[in-house]
Amino acid sequence: MVFVTKFRNRVFTGIHLERMEQIMRNVCADFECELAEFNGESNHVHLLVDFPPKVALSHLVNSLKGVSSRRLRQEFPELARHYYRANKLWSGSYFTGSVGGAPISVLRQYIEQQNRPV
Predict the structure, then answer these.
(1) Count of domains in the chain?
(2) Is residue 7 part of a domain?
(3) Is residue 117 part of a domain?
(4) 72 close to 20: Cβ distance less than 8 angstroms
(5) Tell me: the pLDDT tens digits for 7-47?
(6) Average pLDDT, rounded, for the chain
(7) CATH number of domain containing 72
(8) Which candidate among 5, 33, 73, 118 keeps its CA 20 to 30 Å from the CA of 65?
(9) What is the pTM for the complete model shown?
């Protein structure tokens, strides 16, 4: 999965991404999913999520984006300047792709190589 910030604003620093990873791991656990890999940059994040077929992808994405936005706003009030008008951190769109045939090691390597801002 890939989520981008609203208007591709450069919002996140390393501390934001570390906290976001914790938040998203908790959300995945609530859905009985596993966040296998997480990484990101200042304006987007990459997630590798293993989830069962009973989980509706749209519900999982909605919770990941909604909970992370709300918690980050509460814990890091300085992020408010990046929330344009309607208090939205994330763009309304997202990318997901199925990777059932790809080796997990290749996917992990790709996500790990994404640059984290300091």
Answers:
(1) 1
(2) yes
(3) no
(4) yes
(5) 898 999 999 999 999 999 999 999 999 999 999 999 999 99
(6) 89
(7) 3.30.70.1290
(8) 118
(9) 0.86
